[in-house]
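Priority: medium. Attachment 1 of 2:
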């Protein structure tokens, strides 16, 4: 088959030529002998070609590269217009084509590669904690395996912390990339697509250092002051102010194809500043694999969450997809699968019309299904959904045909292992004798909410979901967040540790509080929570920070 090679620069601009009439035309190479980056087979100018991409790092004065956005409004030949129509669906692939598809966009850095000092030295109060560092060095011996909890004895109050809490590797990667970008490109405009992670203290600190956010976590466009933009044609929208050399960092949750295409068309480089967590990308790779076998993707996730939206958008490029929020929706879907004829379509449209890919046909697209999940959910909830749908598929098609209709290669392992190990470590800590439990993290953090759910099941209203020490008003009251399905968190005032409700015989016993943090909670915030609570007790009843750190040092030495 004949070949055609198109040239792009590092800003995703297409190489073109301009004739004497100022009309842009194609600049292609036919049957080049040394093609490397195969894109796809295309049909153009009544001919089938194997299409290759050449990447040119620097252009000469004779070379002419234009952004897709500029070419769309420019005067151009019919041949170039036709070529753009053929190539546009491949723009994201072109941006990442040099990247080995078996690898990950942004692999976790190992210990030697870590650059935590880039952010720790700049925002000590947020990121640094001697207590948390000591606990992790003692108990967090293996990243993927939980260990026993540890107790911090401050005398009048004791804190029990799990072996695993706080930043996961994906969050650390994203934060390092953001601070490194600010340090390495001091003269360029740097933007975040949306919140880097679900923690306001991290996002606000980056904002103070000049990093701006193009949109909210709900996809609403913003201006330079962080105000919402109602009209996308508004010139004050930061999206409409992006220039060729500007930098946009893609957050750990990933990005939708629509947002990536919009960036590419403006000439914004993607891969170098893409901080998508590799465990999110692992889900995308799983989707590609089962989609190639003809299975429809069912995403167990919160439809409003950035990661779920990015995963859904990614899935659409491979085949039909559907989002289910929980086991209740899975049971409704089970009824759809078992229904026939008009009842099937009616039931499906009633419950899933806005949660599925365009043109989704429940008669065909639910015959072969594969379940993946938003990585920050409770694993047992995804397993429950998988087990339920396995029963439904078996009922409809029979045990002998189950594997033809249900993809079982994932078995729930598209969950983030950091989410799972944080949950495992927390469950181990729950066996201690405790008065209260505090779960610390951004109020829109899904994985933090999952940790809170575990605590609430054990302690009821003695488990509290907080964002920082500011939620703790006094020994008596605390401001607790109520997470909702819409993604909005409301706040309520609760009893914390009222002295008059404690048993007389317990008055001389230390208050015992479990504290854990979500994957986007910095260590410094955990220590500030501890300091705030300590401040409610008389100094003479407290052991010093130095004494507690010495306790931890003694534990570490005894376990060597």
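Attachment 2 of 2:
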């Amino acid at each position: 088959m004949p070949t055609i090679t198109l040239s792009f620069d590092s800003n995703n601009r297409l190489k073109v030529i301009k004739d004497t009439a100022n009309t842009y035309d194609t600049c292609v190479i036919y049957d080049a002998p040394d093609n490397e980056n195969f894109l796809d087979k295309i049909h153009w100018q009544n001919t089938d070609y194997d299409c290759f991409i050449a990447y040119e790092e620097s252009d000469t004065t004779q070379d002419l590269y234009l952004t897709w956005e500029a070419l769309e409004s420019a005067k151009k030949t019919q041949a170039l217009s036709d070529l753009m129509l053929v190539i546009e669906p491949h723009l994201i692939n072109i941006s990442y084509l040099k990247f080995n598809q078996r690898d990950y966009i942004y692999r976790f850095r190992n210990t030697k590669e870590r650059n935590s000092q880039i952010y720790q030295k700049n925002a000590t109060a947020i990121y640094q904690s001697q207590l948390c560092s000591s606990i992790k060095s003692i108990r967090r011996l293996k990243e993927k395996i939980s260990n026993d909890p540890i107790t911090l004895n401050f005398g009048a109050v004791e804190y029990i912390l799990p072996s695993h809490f706080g930043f996961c590797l994906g969050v650390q990667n994203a934060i390092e990339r953001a601070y490194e970008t600010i340090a390495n490109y001091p003269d360029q405009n740097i933007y975040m697509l949306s919140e880097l992670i679900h923690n306001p203290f991290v996002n606000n600190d980056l904002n103070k250092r000049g990093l701006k956010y193009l949109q909210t976590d709900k996809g609403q466009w913003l201006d330079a002051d962080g105000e919402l933009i109602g009209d996308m044609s508004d010139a004050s929208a930061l999206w409409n102010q992006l220039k060729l050399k500007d930098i946009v960092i893609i957050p750990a949750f990933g990005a939708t194809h629509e947002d990536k295409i919009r960036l590419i068309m403006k000439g914004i480089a993607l891969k170098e500043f893409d901080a998508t967590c590799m465990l999110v990308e692992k889900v995308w790779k799983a989707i590609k694999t089962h989609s190639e076998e003809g299975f429809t993707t069912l995403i167990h996730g919160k439809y409003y969450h950035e990661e779920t939206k990015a995963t859904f958008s990614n899935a659409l490029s491979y085949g039909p997809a559907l989002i289910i929020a929980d086991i209740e929706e899975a049971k409704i879907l089970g009824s759809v699968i078992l229904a026939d004829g008009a009842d099937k379509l009616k039931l499906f449209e009633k419950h899933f019309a806005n949660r599925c890919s365009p043109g989704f046909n429940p008669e065909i697209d639910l015959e072969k299904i594969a379940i993946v999940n938003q990585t920050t959910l409770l694993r047992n909830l995804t397993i429950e959904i998988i087990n339920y749908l396995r029963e439904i598929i078996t009922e409809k098609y029979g045990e002998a045909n189950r594997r033809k209709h249900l993809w079982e290669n994932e078995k729930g392992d598209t969950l983030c292992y950091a989410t799972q190990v944080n949950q495992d470590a927390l469950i181990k800590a729950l066996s201690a004798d405790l008065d209260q439990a505090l779960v610390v993290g951004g109020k829109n953090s899904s994985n933090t909410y999952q940790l809170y759910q575990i605590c609430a099941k054990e302690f009821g209203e003695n488990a509290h979901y907080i964002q920082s020490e500011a939620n703790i008003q006094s020994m008596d009251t605390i401001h607790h967040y109520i997470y909702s399905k819409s993604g909005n968190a409301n706040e309520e005032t609760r009893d914390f540790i009222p002295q008059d409700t404690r048993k007389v015989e317990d008055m001389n016993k230390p208050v015992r509080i479990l504290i854990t943090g979500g994957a986007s909670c910095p260590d410094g915030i955990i220590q500030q929570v501890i300091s705030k609570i300590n401040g409610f007790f008389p100094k003479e009843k407290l052991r010093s920070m130095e004494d507690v750190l010495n306790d931890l040092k003694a534990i570490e030495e005894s376990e060597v």
